[in-house]
Amino acid sequence: MRDNWCVGFSRRYTVGVWVGNGGGDPMWNVSGMDGAAPVWVELMNALHASAPSDPPAPPAGVVRAAGDWWLRGMQPAAGWSAGAPPLARIVSPARDLAIALDPDIPAGHERVLFAAEPRDAALSWRLDGAALGPAGEPRLWPPRRGRHELVLEDAAGRTLDSVRFVVR
User: Greatest CA separation found in the chain?
Assistant: First the structure.
């Protein structure tokens, strides 16, 4: 909770924003989404107010498929279209995420977001082999230290996606 960063670019500008306390003291209730990112957006909008910029070329290894951006090799199979049934997948937490519990946040206040796409009441969660309940809506899980595997299942109990993550 000491440093907040947001770095991004357009064809004309590269902007990095740091938000924090110069003396290194921790900040309270400030994340990158409500600290550095809004400053970055406002700055980029101001820079482009009189000189709009075309979107930058995507980074190497990023491709456009089915109306969205994907890492090469992760995009939907050929022939899949936006009109086809969406692929069920875990969107949070990210694969191989390392979560550090913050000693400055009271126990019971930290949560990890479990979310799947599409939102489907027929989908369910399994965490470390134990049934966790429906995955039709995002769920906030109170983290426990250790290595974990989150599985997204269909109504028949078939694994549709899984992610491993660690809580330290």
Answer: 56
CATH topology classification for 88-167? Immunoglobulin-like (2.60.40)
92 CB neighbour count, 10 Å cutoff: 15
d(CA 155, CA 157): 6
Q: Looking at the predicted structure, is the pLDDT value of residue 17 above 90? A: yes
pTM of the model: 0.53
Do residues 50 and 13 lie in contact, with contact meaning Cβ atoms separated by under 8 Å?
no
- The residue extents of the domains of the chain are 3-47, 88-167
- 19 and 29 Cβ atoms separated by less than 8 Å: no
Burial tier of 115 (Cβ tally within 10 Å: 0-12, 13-18, 19+): middle
